[in-house]
Amino acid sequence: MARREVKGQYAASVLGTAWTFIHPLVLIFVFWFVFSVGFKAKPMNNVPFVVWLTAGMMPWFLFADILATSAGIVVGHANLIKKTLFPSQVLPMVRIVAGLVTHFVFLILLVGLLLFQHISFTLYFFQFFYYSLCLCLFVLGLSWIVSSLNVFLRDISQMVAVVVQVGFWVTPVFWDLQIMPKKAQLILKLNPMYYIVQGYRDSFIYGVGFWHHPYQTVYFWVVCIAMLFLGVYVFQRLKPQFADVL
Predict the structure, then answer these.
(1) Res 136: pLDDT
(2) CB 82 within 8 A of CB 243
(3) Cβ–Cβ under 8 Å, residues 67 and 142
(4) Which domain holds residue 153?
(5) How far, in Å, CA of 240 to CA of 216, rounded?
(6) CB 234 within 8 Å of CB 151
């Protein structure tokens, strides 16, 4: 289903799945030109800004894509839910797997940028898999919640789009958390996506292991597991009414 989901996005286009590479490549080029050439953005901690930005954009774009599309995924597959005994709880998982395709394209481009900027490879790069798992589990819980609620209240998908836009600027993707006052930093670190975005940068740029942040790691997993249990609870409670409402 995930493979069909990816192919379906470009079914009528001439280049087909090549757009999976073109979109992130153009996006990175635009950001590089605007911030490095136009605004003359300074390196972040001796790291070229385009590399620093791409490492932070990778997890956020995956999170935003999965959450935004998962909101309407149950409604979008109403034919399966109404006519067959279909395990609808797998639909958000399908979106996650489909989203990971573009995510790995981002990974290839980021590694190319690192090599181009002569940033050496380290074993910390493999932390990418840990933080990807963190992201997928966290967004899975959220996706179960929003996809099930959207069946009964279609405004949920619009609310998710607004929350994703606000969350993009609240999460330090384009800006460094260190520019904020200490009290504001403590509050912003409560955002689970901060842990993941910073984790990607720690893995690809700074060479810092997740075990160096024990309190943040424990906090993230408490929130993540709570979100998963809440997602399962909400989805299972609402699932029996899906077919009637749709």
Answers:
(1) 94
(2) yes
(3) yes
(4) 2-245
(5) 37
(6) no
Phi/psi-derived region of residue 121, left when phi > 0, alpha when psi is between -120 and 50, beta in every other case: beta
Tokens of 150: 């959207």
Structure tokens at 180: 């904020």
The two counts, helices (H) then strands (E), for the chain are 12, 0
Tell the residue number behind the tokens 């935003």, with chain if given.
64
Q: 70 - beta bridge partners?
A: none
| Predicted TM-score (pTM) of this structure | 0.86
Mean pLDDT of 217-226: 96
90/84 Cα distance (integer angstroms): 14
How many CA within 13 A on the CB side of residue 232?
A: 7
pLDDT in tens, 182-194: 888 888 889 999 9
The number of distinct structural domains making up the chain is 1
Is 160 in contact with 166 (CB distance < 8 Å)? no
Left if phi > 0, otherwise alpha if psi is -120 to 50, otherwise beta: which for 64?
A: alpha
Average of per-residue pLDDT values in the chain: 84
